[in-house]
Amino acid sequence: MLSANVLVLNRYFQLVHVTTVKRALILLFSGKAKAVTDDYRTYDWEEWADIPVQPNDDFISTPSKKVAVPYVVQLLNFEKVKKFELRFSRANIFARDKNRCQYCGRHYSTHRLSIDHVIPQSRGGKSTWENVVCACLKCNVTKSDMTPEEARMPLLKQPTRPVWSPGEKLLRGRPVPRQWKNFLDEAYWNAPLKE
Ligand SMILES: [Zn+2]
């Protein structure tokens, strides 16, 4: 268990490398990293240790309780981000917006999110990093064919083009735990969208 693989991300949720559970726990415990769940939420050690272990979770036992194994961690101070063009895809848009609806501000699981064109396509809005955001289905329907101003739905922040580090190479040939899925290349989510 302690030698199982853990995905290490930087603070932009970009893949940095793969480490062991043992090493990830040390990072988490020393405050150098946070555990990350599927919906891009992050937890420090205290918060993580407080989450009840679910029946399907792998866990480790501390003297006082069982703690779920963190299969994805985020380094808090990893600055070395090489600037590469990030593929324009659903997964990367959701990752950029951290699965957070950019109108109501709530976090959602991936299947409850959609991509919204800030300036609607019907009004000439383009499919670009600067004109698409992650939106929950309800907000997307409410906003409909309007601009944020017309719909009185201000954006949390103006969308921008993110950068990416080419970490996928690290993963070749490795078994991929289900907990990594959200953060890795997947045919559907990463299919390039027309820009
Ligand atoms: Zn919303």
Provide an overview of this structure.
- The protein has 195 residues and is of the alpha+beta class.
- Helix content is 19%, strand content 21%.
- It is built from 6 helices and 11 strands.
- It has helices at residues 21-29, 45-50, 90-96, 137-143, 148-151, 187-190; strands at 5-9, 15-20, 33-36, 42-43, 59-61, 66-68, 72-75, 84-85, 113-117, 132-136, 163-164.
- The strands form 4 sheets. Strands 2-1-7-3-4 form a 5-stranded mixed sheet.
- The protein is elongated.
- The termini are far apart.
- Residues 186-191 have low confidence and may be disordered.
- Zinc ion (ZN) is lined by residues 101, 103-104, 106, 135-136, 138-139.
- Zinc ion binds next to strand 10 and helix 4.
**End-to-end Cα distance:** 43 Å
The 3D shape can be described as: elongated
Overall pLDDT confidence: 84
Strand ordering within the main sheet: 2-1-7-3-4
Strand content is 15-25%
The low-confidence runs, each spanning 5 or more residues with pLDDT under 50, are 186-191
- Number of H- or I-type helical stretches: 6
Query: Would you count the extended β strands for me?
Result: 11
Give the helix/strand class: alpha+beta
Fraction of helical residues: 10-25%
Bound molecules: zinc ion
Order of helices and strands: EEHEEHEEEEHEEHHEH
